[in-house]
């Protein structure tokens, strides 16, 4: 049986599904070439199961997705938050960190 879980979803994110082990969210980015981030993580262990980006630099973003898979959410945020892309004040990795921060807020 699936237990009821209270989930706070950020304004730019859409809650997709929740199973007994995974939460899937789509996050609409701002200020980057990528438009959307699909995030799959375990809300109990805070482990990222998978990340994929829509738009942006395909090879680099696939690499980021593979690198963060299996990492704790807090570690991903610590490593990626504040990264800038060119003269922009954000980046795709920074947007992923922002999405994870907002998803984990209580």
Describe the structure.
- With 106 residues, this protein is an alpha+beta fold.
- Helix content is 30%, strand content 28%.
- It has a four-stranded antiparallel beta sheet.
- α2 runs antiparallel to α3 (92-104).
- The chain is globular.
- The chain starts with 12 loop residues before the first strand and ends with a helix.
Question: Can you lay out the helices and strands and say which pair or pack?
Answer:
Blueprint: E1 13-18, E2 23-28, E3 34-42, E4 47-55, H1 58-68, H2 73-80, H3 92-104
Antiparallel strand pairs: 1-2, 2-3, 3-4
**Regions with little confidence, pLDDT below 50 for 5+ residues:** 1-11
Number of strands: 4
Q: Please give the order of strands in the largest beta sheet.
A: 1-2-3-4
Return Rg in Å: 13 Å
What is the overall shape?
globular
What percent strand? 25-35%
Question: What percentage of residues falls in helices of 4 or more residues?
Answer: 25-40%
Average of per-residue pLDDT values: 86
Order of helices and strands: EEEEHHH
User: Helical stretch count?
Assistant: 3
Kindly, what is the distance between the CA atoms of the first and last residues, rounded to a whole number of angstroms?
A: 24 Å
Largest sheet entry? 4 strands, antiparallel
Give a short summary of the structure.
The chain is an alpha+beta fold. The protein is built from 3 helices and 4 strands; from the N terminus they run ββββααα. Helix content is 30%, strand content 28%.
Please name the defining characteristics of this protein.
disordered N terminus; globular; four-stranded antiparallel sheet; 106 residues; alpha+beta; 3 helices; 30% helix; single chain
């Amino acid at each position: 049986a699936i237990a009821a879980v209270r989930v706070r979803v950020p304004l730019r994110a859409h809650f997709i599904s929740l199973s007994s082990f995974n939460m899937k969210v789509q996050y609409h980015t701002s200020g980057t070439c990528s438009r959307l981030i699909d995030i799959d993580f375990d809300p109990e262990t805070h482990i990222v199961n998978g990340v994929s980006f829509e738009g942006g630099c395909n090879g680099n973003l696939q690499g980021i997705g593979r690198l963060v898979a299996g990492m704790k959410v807090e570690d991903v945020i610590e490593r990626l938050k504040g990264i800038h892309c060119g003269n922009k004040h954000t980046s795709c990795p920074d947007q992923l960190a922002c999405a994870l921060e907002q998803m984990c807020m209580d």
